[in-house]
What we know:
alpha/beta
Amino acid sequence: MEKRTLLMLLAPLALLAALCAGMALGLRAIFEGGMPLVDGESFVEGRIERVVDSYTSAFILEDAQGVVLVDAGMDPAAATLTAALARRGYQPSDVRAIVFTHGHGDHIGGAGAFPQAELFALEAEVELVEGRRVAGNLLGMVREPSPTGLQITRALEDGQALQLGGLELEIFAMPGHSLGSAALLCQGVLFIGDAAASMADGQLAGPPPVFSADRDAGMASLQALAARLKPRADEIEWIVPSHQGALEGPDALLAWTQE
């Protein structure tokens, strides 16, 4: 067998090995030393609830006018999410909006189970949510764009206050984990998606390597968010990542202003 032919045969295997090693490294970064996920973790006197879907989370935000979701988990049937809604007396049709922290599959996978919900994401993330662009991380190297069947109702801007009934979500651009990652502040709860990870020692780590498009940019985004919210630290009661448990108070974020 010619050397060139042998190299052509081995190249896909080498790429697969690198991908598997990278995924293992990324998963280790997400889970090792992190605050454990707690299904049903609640905030704001129970009006905000975490729903764990495998290794990720979606969040139910409830007010007098119904339900808004932050992210939608990874299960296309949204089984755990619809069950959690049912326990609160809601059907999928009662979900009036879903606001995405970013467009990776483990955050948008269940959105199709709520066809009546309006969908919101940062402008820079619209193509990823809709499947017209692949993620800029290692997994994106082996995928092609594929329509998700989702269509963003309205693109969001950095600094925007999104009013959904009685709920107001303030939007903060957090490029790095993905191009259009966002943090959302609502009623004292800072949903930070995968832009940061909460650690068991009470610290806040940067976005996970391998699964992030530009980790250095993600670290810079976290520092910028800390600087923006430092004058408003008393508004932050909880910092809530998607893959780890919540941290109480603003201190873990404010520590990034000293980095």
